[in-house]
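Q: What changes when pyridoxal-5'-phosphate is included in the input?
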Amino acid sequence: MSYSDKHKIKTCTMQLPVRLLLGPGPSNLHPRVNQQLTSSMIGYTDANYYTVMDETMELMRYLFQTDNHFTIPISGAGTAAMETCVSNLIEPNDKVVCLVSGFFSDRIYQMAVRYGANILKVDKQWGSWFSLEEIESALQTHKPSLLTLVFGETSTGVKQQMEGVGELCHKYNCLLMVDCVAALGGVPFFVDQWKVDACYTGGQKCLSGPPGISPLTFSDAACKKIATRKTPVANWYLDTLLLGQYWCPEYNFADGKVVKSDPPPMRKYHHTTPANLIYALRESLILLVEEGLDNVWARHQAAAIQLYQGLESLGLKPFVNELNESSEKGGRLFSLTTVTIPEGVDGKMVMKYLLDNFNIEIAGGIGAFAGKVWRVGLMGFNANPSNVKLLISAMSDALK
Ligand code: PLP
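A: The predicted holo structure follows.
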């Protein structure tokens, strides 16, 4: 055995530019959230940590607007929360309807394929939303046990209309799974009122928090489905029967109902949870409580409308035409706007100009929208008038 210096590079403590992150996420950390990342580490069986966990779960219920007992943060990216839903709610050969009209709804579909579902994929042109008629027709045709959709599609800037979707799914004995990664904490969403069975988001978008910690909630019906599976969840790390024994052991998940045991059972170690990310998430949620969700939603809406007006002054247009909030059809997602790149403009050059000269990051399109749109996120702490003003003036410079 001989010791090697092969990979021993000489470098120094990291110094990164300070960017204004106005793309599809991550967005900038709120300073108070940032501070929590450096709070002192404690063990995962410390009583103080248990209090942090309990408070975080309760604050997440406020975020989701739910009474769901099973409301926990997943240690991982938004995609890990997505996979928690897919892996727990789907057994091989289960019938599933996947509504697909963008990059992330397609990701859900691809995951469901890997877990052996019998899938009806309802494909619509990117940038579209699904009507209640289309959804009912898919439910009638396929008779699924799960329907999946994305509420705020970050690749297209479209918001799916939710009123009535949950009722329809339940009428056909089907659970409803909704991706809220780009919207929750920025755009009104009501898990209980909209009868959503499985829902998740990520820390790094409208919560102004770090990536890698992802709130998730399951209805009792979803828990029951998991508790009565014939096969174990094929993903050990994301198995919510096991995760529940650490996060909410008083919940008798195996029977799919809440049993208040006194004293509550001991929490069982599952994995070492990322304590600092949980401290940060808790602080993001406290910020939401302090401002009030209704005010947070109004602030995001005002910033988006200011953005639309600014774009218009530059001769630019949001890709999504429908602005009507109460429209049956869906509409623009206030937290993420896709902007059509005009003929003859080099979209990449504009993004580079903003980054090099103003330290502002916006993103280009992905998948079917590559080269066609810019994506501008006004999420969480970043959704404010001065950021919009700065972006519009920087874009005006870039387009000269
Ligand atoms: N779903 C949507 C709508 C998203 O915008 C994203 C990320 O941009 C994800 C899921 C995946 O989240 P993550 O990148 O944190 O895994």
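Observations recorded in class: The first strand starts at residue 20 and ends at 21.
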